[in-house]
């Protein structure tokens, strides 16, 4: 388990406070996954159209909150261990 120092936690909170509710849903969805996931897997867990999800993933990627990797000509998305720990710790308190 990672322990986040207060300065880093504050910086992540600042970033996450700026997220829309839909972006938070996607972050929480990714926070529950250990392995990188495809867009199709994310779509199974959130009520979004593929174009909405694509835009949200792009926005989250621009903020460096998600990581994207290519595998077998498919885009996979994941959270870094630090962001995942923050999401699990903070969003579980909120009941997400």
Describe this structure in words.
The chain has 5 helices and 3 strands. It has helices at 6-17, 21-31, 39-45, 50-62, 81-93, and strands at 37-38, 67-71, 74-78. The chain has one domain (6-93): Arc Repressor Mutant, subunit A (Orthogonal Bundle), CATH 1.10.10. A hairpin with a 2-residue loop joins strand 2 and strand 3 (74-78). The protein has a 3-stranded antiparallel sheet with strand order 1-3-2. Helix content is 58%, strand content 12%. The protein is globular and about 40 Å long. The longest helix has 13 residues, at 50-62. The protein has 96 residues and is an alpha+beta fold.
Largest sheet: 3 strands, antiparallel
Spatial shape: globular
Query: In the residues, how many domains can be counted?
Result: 1
What class would the helix/strand composition place it in? alpha+beta
Separate helix tally: 5
Cα-to-Cα separation, first versus last residue: 20 Å
Strand order of the largest sheet: 1-3-2
The CATH fourth-level homologous superfamily: Winged helix-like DNA-binding domain superfamily/Winged helix DNA-binding domain
Unreliable spans are none
Strand content: 5-15%
What share of residues is helical?
A: 55-70%
- Please compute the radius of gyration using only Cα atoms: 13 Å
Order of helices and strands: HHEHHEEH
- On the 0 to 100 scale, the average pLDDT is 89
Please tell me the CATH architecture by its name.
Orthogonal Bundle
CATH fold-level label? Arc Repressor Mutant, subunit A
Under the CATH scheme, which class? Answer: Mainly Alpha
Record field, number of beta strands = 3
């Amino acid at each position: 388990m990672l322990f986040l120092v207060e300065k880093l936690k504050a910086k992540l909170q600042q970033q996450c406070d700026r997220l829309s509710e839909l972006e938070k849903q996607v972050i929480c969805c990714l926070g529950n996954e250990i392995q990188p996931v495809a867009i199709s897997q994310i779509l199974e867990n959130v009520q979004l159209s593929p174009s909405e999800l694509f835009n949200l993933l792009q926005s989250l990627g621009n903020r460096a909150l998600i990581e994207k990797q290519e595998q077998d000509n498919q885009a996979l998305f994941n959270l870094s261990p630090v962001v995942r720990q923050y999401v699990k710790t903070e969003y579980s308190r909120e009941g997400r």
